[in-house]
Amino acid sequence: MGAPASTSSSEVLMSPLSRRGFLGLGMSAGAALLAGCSTPGSTSVNAAPVIPPASGPVKLTYWAWLKDLQKVCDIWNAKNPNIQVEAVWIPSGNSGGYPKMYSALAAGTGPDLAQIEFRTIPEFLLVNGLVDLARYGAQDYADRFDKTLWGQVSFVDGVYGIPQDSGPMATFYRPDLLERVGADAPATWDQWAQVAAELRKDKVYIDCFPLADPSWFTAIATQAGASWLRVDGDGWVINMTDDVTLATARFFDKAIDDDLVTTAFGQYSTPWFAAAADNQIASLTSASWGDALLEGVSGGEGKWRVAKMPRWSDGFGSSYIGGSTVAVLANSQHPKEALEFAIWMQTSKEGIDALIKYCGIGWSPLRDYIGEQREQPAAFFGGQRYNEEIFLPASKEQNPDWSWWPITQQSFNIIGDGFRKKASGGTLVDAIVTAETTIIDAFRNKGLTIRKATS
Predict the structure, then answer these.
(1) Which InterPro entries does UniProt cross-reference here (predicted)?
(2) E strands within 11-128?
């Protein structure tokens, strides 16, 4: 995957994308240049000139749900008196942060910078909510970032966010609980099912399956090779009922039916922490940022280790859950200065180390630096250097063909509604099949062009 051709702000003046002009845009983890075209007859709206740098000091506002973010900003502020940054805490995106941003955009106000997840960027583009940072020189920094992550903020010849963190996946596990049944961390999903069955004899679950949040299932299907939506011509093509997705659904239908996993709670919930502290959870397959959460397990220090996540017979070595960007919202009057701060925060060792220390961000977006703290052995994980041993390789073994789409959160809500029916006799397979039809309707209700993939 390559980044789009570098274009300086003096060479191009791009207008923000109209809602219908976005129909042909795709976001792919595997290609930074996401080709597409507008629906015939559509035009871009709200064209605005590039805003020149300010002639004097400016104050930027940064909305995010990262804890202690102001401490990171203060490091910058101490060295940059002409560009001062104030962090304002907001609830995480789906807990109220995104509605707050949308309301501010509609009112012509809001922050300069905002934390926006990779999967949510397309939704902000539909309302012309983000500044194209390619117009301010963002492409000059593309080669500093992991190519996969840079691809997820790149659309055609624009850049709509600076990668902040990501979530390559692996398996956190309890060696002592697995040793009770003569097992090690399973290398394949078939082995995972076999170990899970043995653990149930000891009244231990290998993991849980969250019915309410389909993000985890989506990540596992992605690892198997699924690619649910893609752009074709002037619209979207959907294929949620491909062989690998349905095979993944059948696998976990059986795992749930056989009581190999619990559906009583989700990962990192209060009941999950209680069960983990009571030696009832032997492992969890999750993202890199789960390490900090695991430290909340009472009495867990020294008991956990990290291994590669189980693999399917085909597909990829890892997958991903979560991940955020630093985006510049459309109403900012200082996008050049905002980009300058964002680049410092996400590409300097000083900025990355501060984000890890104070905010506990996920996996670093840089190609060649995971953070000083993450280069050290971890006491909680028995001195294991798991970031270098496990997560660094995992970050290079992800599905390059997965694309997010403009109504991702609504789609997840639809899938989650179907998954909940599993508790009353439904199946994951039926939920996926039904969700595909409902998502097609949801696209069309928003005026977006979509069709079902042909076999």
Answers:
(1) Bact_solute-bd_prot1, SBP, TAT_signal
(2) 27-28, 58-64, 83-89, 113-117
β-strand pairing of 320-328 with 162-173: antiparallel
Q: Let me know if residue 13 belongs to a domain.
A: no
Whether residue 324 sits in one domain with residue 272: no
Which DSSP helix (H) or strand (E) runs through 124?
helix 121-125
Q: Among residues of the chain, what percentage have pLDDT more than 90?
A: 81
Structural domain includes residue 343: yes
Q: At 113, phi and psi to the nearest 5?
A: -120, 150
**Residue type at position 436:** E
63 Cβ contact partners less than 8 Å away, ≥ 6 residues apart: 88, 90, 97, 100, 101, 110, 111, 113, 114, 115
Strands 113-117 and 320-328: antiparallel
Determine, yes or no, domain membership for 296.
yes
Long-range contacts of 83-86 (CB under 8 A, 24+ apart): 83/57, 83/58, 83/337, 83/340, 83/341, 84/57, 84/58, 84/59, 84/60, 85/59, 85/60, 85/61, 85/113, 85/341, 86/59, 86/60, 86/61, 86/62
pLDDT digits (tens, 9 = 90+) for 392-447: 999 999 998 888 899 999 999 999 999 999 999 999 999 999 999 999 999 999 99
How far, in whole angstroms, is CA 260 from its chain's centroid? 27
**Domain count of the chain?**
2
State the Cα–Cα distance between residues 282 and 169, nearest whole angstrom. Answer: 17
Residue 285 and residue 414 in one domain: yes
- Distance, in Å, from the CA atom of 296 to the CA atom of 234, rounded to the nearest integer, reads 48
Do 215 and 183 lie in one domain? The reply is yes
Burial of 194 per CB tally in 10 Å (0-12, 13-18, 19+) = middle
CATH of the domain at 38: 3.40.190.10
Range of the domain at 409: 170-319+399-452
Pairing of strands 162-173, 305-307: antiparallel
328 touches 160 (CB < 8 A): no
- Calculate the CA 56 to chain-centre distance: 36
Query: Do both 143 and 194 map to the same domain?
Result: no
* 206: CB partners within 8 A, 6+ apart: 192, 195, 196, 199, 260, 261, 281, 282, 283
pTM for the full predicted model: 0.86
Q: Chain-wide mean pLDDT for the chain?
A: 89
Residue 111 backbone dihedrals phi, psi, to 5 degrees:
-80, 170
CA distance readout (Å), 116 to 55, 134, 348 = 29, 18, 20
